[in-house]
């Protein structure tokens, strides 16, 4: 049995998958990530609850995975493949970035799991770009070459934020004073919405009346708080701008896919055209981006599914059956 997981900065989703046959989750459980002191404690709690001993663990985690080591900066967890093998007495443990896991899942999802955000011409042999705002800002690629798919993890959300007008230059100065380095994640994420709202209140000489991204989102959607609505508009422009950057850097002619927990909750804001306007605002390469379609990934556990599929892929390779899984 495969224990698969989507280990986010806020929530963790775990499930059991059969080693063979269709990738269908069983014993699915949702946990608050920060309620646990470590990944070992979290996994042990789940295993004790379901009373099933896995033969393999595969986790998509919100952080970089380098040589089998994970640093989840938004939670303060560090762990390795070796740690988990030793703790759970397993020979097979796989760790991958959560957006990399999402990329793995895309070829296996059905059309009903994609909401069109922007039309375009799909290049079936073209690269895909994946961007997801949540507790942080995740970015990944699915590179297509010679009939096979190669997911690539990145930490692009931590690249330098680029202001686009007088207001956002002041936002950058505000965030620089607060954090030092200002990344896209400081703006295009859940905490980013909070940062923008705090800044706008400061600009108006007001004390923030709302504290969480959830509260700001609800107030902005209903129009009850003009500053909350403006914060969401700035968030969506930043989100679209960085999605356009990622599409250019990856030549994502196969499309851009939006993941994460924020976009589905604020779906009506896409209809305002703010995201698309920022996505296309790339000067001489606007025409190139006009041809790239954008979809929102509307699958309840795509990262979890991707982690399970990756484990199955590795097991197939171990049996000497090559890369047929993703061909």
Automatic annotation (TrEMBL):
Name of protein: Glucokinase
InterPro entries: ATPase_NBD, Glucokinase
CDD domains in alphabetical order: ASKHA_NBD_GLK
NCBIfam families: glk (TIGR00749)
Main location: cytoplasm
Keyword Ribosomal protein applies: no
Matching PANTHER family: GLUCOKINASE
Pfam families: Glucokinase
Keyword ATP-binding applies: yes
Catalytically driven reaction(s): D-glucose + ATP = D-glucose 6-phosphate + ADP + H(+)
CC terms in the record's Gene Ontology section: cytoplasm
Transmembrane segments: none
Family (UniProt): Belongs to the bacterial glucokinase family.
A Gene Ontology molecular function term of the record: glucokinase activity
Record-listed E.C. numbers: 2.7.1.2
């Amino acid at each position: 049995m495969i224990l698969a997981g989507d280990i986010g900065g806020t929530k963790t989703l775990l499930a059991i998958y059969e080693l063979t046959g269709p990738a269908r989750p069983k014993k699915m459980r949702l946990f608050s990530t920060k309620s646990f002191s470590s990944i070992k404690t979290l996994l042990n709690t789940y295993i004790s609850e379901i009373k099933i001993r896995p033969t393999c663990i595969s986790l998509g985690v919100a952080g970089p995975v380098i040589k089998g080591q994970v640093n989840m900066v938004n939670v303060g967890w560090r762990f390795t493949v070796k740690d988990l093998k030793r703790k759970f007495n397993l020979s097979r443990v796989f760790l991958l970035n959560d957006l990399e896991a999402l990329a793995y899942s895309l070829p296996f999802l059905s059309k009903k799991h994609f909401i069109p955000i922007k039309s375009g011409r799909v290049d079936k042999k073209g690269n895909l770009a994946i961007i997801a705002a949540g507790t942080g800002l995740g970015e990944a690629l699915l590179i297509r070459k010679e009939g096979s798919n190669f997911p690539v993890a990145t930490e692009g959300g931590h690249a330098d934020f680029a202001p686009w007008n007088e207001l956002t230059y002041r936002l950058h100065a505000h965030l620089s004073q607060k954090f030092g380095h200002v990344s896209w994640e400081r703006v295009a994420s859940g905490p980013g919405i909070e940062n923008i709202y705090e800044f706008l209140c400061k600009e108006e000489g007001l004390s923030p009346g709302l504290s969480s991204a959830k509260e700001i989102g609800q107030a902005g959607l209903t129009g009850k708080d003009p500053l909350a609505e403006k914060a969401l508009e700035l968030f969506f422009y930043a989100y679209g701008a960085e999605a356009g950057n990622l599409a250019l850097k990856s030549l994502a002619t196969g499309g851009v896919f939006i993941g994460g927990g924020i976009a589905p909750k604020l779906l009506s804001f896409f209809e305002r055209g703010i995201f698309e306007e920022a996505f296309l605002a790339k000067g001489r390469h606007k025409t190139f981006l006009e041809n790239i379609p954008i979809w929102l990934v509307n699958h309840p556990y795509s990262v979890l599914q991707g982690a399970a599929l990756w484990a199955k892929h590795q097991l197939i390779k171990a049996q000497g059956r090559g890369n047929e899984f993703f061909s």
